Amino acid sequence: MVKEIKRKSGRKADEMRPISAKVGIIPNADGSAMYKSGETIAIAAVYGPKKMHPQHSQNPAKGTLRCTYSMLSFSVTDRIRPGPNRRSTEISKIIEWALDPVVMLDNYPNMVVDVHIHMTQADAGTRCAGINAAAMALAHAGIPMKNMVSSIAAGKLDKTVVLDLDKYEDSDFEEGEGSTDIPMSFTDDGKLTHIQVDGYISKEQLKQAIEMAKKASGKIYEVQEKALKEIEK
Ligand code: CDP
Question: Range of 142's domain?
Fold first, then answer.
């Protein structure tokens, strides 16, 4: 049983924002995809595998997955200064770590697969949307993968465990105990590839949040799979 909480958006505690996805949106890229969750929109473009430059960054044992995350200047109300910053560098690494367990680059020594992830609109949950778009773009590019990856955050609003916090809930909600945001990524067979905990949560509620996100990741997977099949038609 999920306890009822009044959310500004009118969503139930275990209800995610409306989602949609499209594959093949950038003809010049080797693979591309868009993932939308409420007002958050991510686009991802894959280039490669290609020879890694500079040469000293090459790994002779296997290929390298290199993700670059950025928010466009006008993706939020306050204009963001273009170019990398601490947050984008951290999220780029997190996206790599979330996808690394499924991407099979053993047959691509000294090569790199570049994934560029741009947020055209950001209303929280951008790393999750970025991971979902990137996973579809990699599959579209024909990069061998063990599984699809689907990402979503759960967390806590005051005392209640909720799914998929939006910007207001993530940053501006100040009632009671405030909010906790826990972005997670799952393989399509339910294995966790990434989890971050921003805020406080008890062990019991963390378990609930993981279960809630895992269930939602199955729904995201269906949307990703449908978008990938549509491009094959
Ligand atoms: O987007 P995500 O939830 O993965 O990461 P976050 O660092 O918790 O950011 C939450 C939200 O804050 C973003 O999605 C943006 O809407 C907003 N944000 C912003 O307005 N300006 C920034 N420089 C960074 C984030």
Answer: 19-232
